[in-house]
UniProtKB/TrEMBL annotation:
InterPro entries: AB_hydrolase_1 (IPR000073), AB_hydrolase_fold (IPR029058), AB_hydrolase_sf (IPR050266). This is Pimeloyl-ACP methyl ester carboxylesterase. It comes from the Bacteria. One of its GO terms (cellular component) is membrane. Residues 21-152 form the AB hydrolase-1 domain. It comes from Thermoflexus hugenholtzii JAD2.
């Protein structure tokens, strides 16, 4: 287990391989652990890193400061500070839900640190029942917990997360939905948005069809659910490697199993 001190926070991470850096950022459920199969596959060409974000896994859990410590900007500053500590000037990113939000926010705050971004379940289509904010957060957190139970790589570490880190992360995705959409149109980095066609929490955002920059791609794995990197690992890993290695990532090929692609 590797630990870096970022400011006053202890941040856990793991690393494999050699080459250009690729940073994996997990979502609201689980920890770095569910990225391990993809890290192993990519490690023959890249130096892969996976972090536990603040409040998750073996990273710090500042419960007394939860309302500020777990905000998106703070999580983003943690990742930027970790890159400084590690001496990583620039990297590719693969992020899932919350991790995708952090990668996009970092690309806007400090664009020189970010190259290509593969976003899994970027939560612009998260649509909870119309309830008061605390109730909406609780409803989403409960549903997320049920999804986490399906995967042995997710469930144990999901139970170790600070519930406030989960709920505040969900709350920001709900409250800042319009910003999340706007951010996609402001980034000048290669983007790939990937969704599971059967994700019960974050369905594919078909309203984006035709609204993205020509350099960005929206892909849907028809049989995928909330964790396509675990449900269809070989497909996910091949797509990730293609996206990171093609000279022009906007020309990524639509394999037979990727049923739909939008621009």
């Amino acid at each position: 287990m590797s630990i870096a001190t970022v400011g006053e926070r202890l941040i856990h991470y793991e690393a494999l391989g050699r080459g250009e850096p690729v940073i994996f950022l997990h979502g609201w459920a689980g920890s770095w652990r569910y990225w391990l199969p993809t890290m192993r596959t990519l490690s023959h060409r890249f130096r892969t890193y996976a972090l536990d974000l603040l409040g998750f896994g073996d990273s710090a859990k500042p419960r007394r400061e939860a309302e500020t410590a777990y905000r998106l900007e703070q999580q983003t500053e943690i990742v930027r500070g970790w890159m400084e500590v590690m001496g990583i000037p620039r990297a590719h990113f693969i992020g899932h839900t919350l991790g995708a939000m952090v990668a996009v926010r970092l690309a806007l705050m400090d664009p020189d640190r970010v190259d290509r971004i593969l976003m899994v379940g970027y939560p612009i289509s998260l649509d909870p029942p119309r309830l008061p904010a605390p109730n909406a957060r609780a409803w989403l957190a409960e549903r997320l917990g049920r999804l986490a139970q399906v995967h042995a790589e997710v469930h144990p570490d999901h139970g170790r997360a600070d519930p406030q880190a989960v709920e505040w992360g969900l709350e920001e995705a709900i409250r800042r939905r319009e910003e999340l959409i706007e951010w996609l149109q402001r980034i000048d980095r290669p983007l790939l948005l990937l969704y599971g066609g059967r994700d019960p929490l974050i369905p594919p955002p078909l309203f984006l069809n035709g609204a993205l920059d020509p350099s960005a791609r929206l892909m849907i794995l028809e049989e995928g659910e909330h964790f396509p990197m675990l449900e269809h690992p070989a497909r996910f890993q091949r797509l990730a490697e293609d996206f990171l290695t093609l000279p022009d990532p906007s020309q990524i090929a639509l394999k037979e199993e990727w049923r739909r692609r939008f621009r």
